[in-house]
Amino acid sequence: MQLRYSFRLYPNGPQRSALARAFGCARVVYNDALRARETARAAGLPFVTSAELSKQVTTAKQTEERAWLAEVSAVVLQQSLRDLDTAYRNFFDGLKGKRPRVGAPRFKSRKGNRHTVRFTANARWKITAGGDLSLPKIGDVRVKWSRALPSFPSTVTVVKDAAGRYFASFIVETGTEKTMPEVTPVVGIDLGLTHFAILSDGTKIDSPRFLRRAEKKLKKAQRDLSRKAKGSNNRGKARVKVARAHARTADARREFHHQLSTKIIRENQAVAVENLAVKGLARTRLAKSVHDAGWSAFTTMLEYKAARYGRHFHPVGRFEPTSQVCSQCGVKDGPKPLNVRIWTCGECGAVLDRDINAAVNVAKAAGLAVSACGARVRPGLVPAQREETGTHRDGQPTVAGIPSL
Q1: What would the pLDDT profile of 196-233 be if each residue is shown by its tens digit?
Q2: Distance between CA atoms of 48 and 193, rounded to whole angstroms?
Q3: pTM
Q4: CB proximity list for 197: less than 8 A, separation 6 or greater
Q5: Using CA atoms, how far apart are residues 367 and 352, in angstroms rounded to an integer?
């Protein structure tokens, strides 16, 4: 399987200038290639191939207008063309139904919030003996290595985000690492907003609500940005402050997802999660809270960590009536309003917690044999089964083998 490893870069002044040139050249080549294909399509001409676009880039570097393209590595320009091919391929595959639909490729803006360049093995980049990342025509960039790479990657992508931070992104091939010992427990997870995750064993994990907690600082930073004159240096500084505030929130949310997903994978042999319609929920009045929770990112982490460490991941369809079925007797009691958090089964009399009951049903829908521990809040009056009633020898009726008084 392929995993992405990202590390923080700390380029100096000249290196930041060189990276800015690389970002700009890659953007210009991407836009020129896209313009050539769109012009050919409008004129009814055949689709411009990648080979023809590559020749146009080589020719453009020899002209006076595009001579500055030679100031960056040629691999960066060729990889920009590969990115355009990938964008077209995803667009056409979406039209054919091979993948979810995406929009047609669009022109990149110089004022974009995220810039990337990619170096392959042909660029002869390397990791120096001192731990720096040596990039062609940029230099040896200092890297903060937080962990070791499992294998040597063939490509590296340099990313600059909206907050002005630089990252080196590596994609490496790794196999299944069965480093975690096998365990017996299995778990079903019901995701929510008040509680981020409710486990089938009765555990409830509160939602951190990182965006809600940071709203006060974000509001002040956004208000300061709106007061700055457009095009001024102060506006640029204020924009970076807003981006950094959002980056801190996103980093805290990602760290929470990683810690919780690792803990669940470590303690359970199989994990079942309901596949929620996040896009649909994000169009409701709960949109901000749904995005703040980050359910999709969390389930993605569970899936790849389960595959990496030899665990089992079971997605459950979103149309499963997990909140309508009693986890004790399996009777479907119908839909219930969201304000009903505890309900009593009309068949067996069990008093159920709505969220824990749903988590147990998620596990059962995935075929996992779990106990309904914690699903019953307090015992109700359970009627005796038909085969448990009878008549005592002295003629007195009995219930469950106990003589009546």
Answers
A1: 998 988 889 999 999 999 999 999 999 999 999 998 99
A2: 49
A3: 0.81
A4: 189, 190, 191, 204, 205, 260, 298
A5: 21
One-letter amino acid at 348 equals: C
CB 326 within 8 A of CB 347: yes
Beta 312-316 vs 270-274: how paired, if at all?
A: parallel
- Rounded to 10 deg, the angle between the 74-96 and 50-60 helix axes is 150
Strands (DSSP E) contained in 51-146 are: 115-119, 126-127, 133-135, 139-144
Q: For residue 160, what are its two tokens?
A: 């600059």
What's the rounded Cα separation, in Å, for the pair 214 and 244? 12
Query: 156, 122 in Cβ contact below 8 A?
Result: no
Give the CA-trace dihedral at 2, 72, 62, 107, to 10 degrees: 60
What is the phi/psi pair of residue 139, to 5°?
A: 115, -170
| C-alpha to C-alpha distance for 261 and 195, rounded to whole angstroms | 15
DSSP symbols for 147-166: S--SS--S-EEEEE-TTS-E
Reported as a single tens digit per residue, the pLDDT across 117-133 is 999 988 999 999 999 99
Angle in degrees, 0-180, between the axes of helices 13-42 and 50-60, rounded to the nearest 10: 130
Judge contact between 252 and 225, C-beta under 8 A: no
Of 279, 233, 268, 289, give the one whose Cα is nearest residue 368.
Answer: 268
Q: Note whether 385 and 336 are within 8 A (CB).
A: no
Strand segments (E) across 200-294: 204-206, 270-274
* Residues across the chain: 405
Give catalytic residue positions.
190, 274, 355
d(CA 80, CA 27): 8
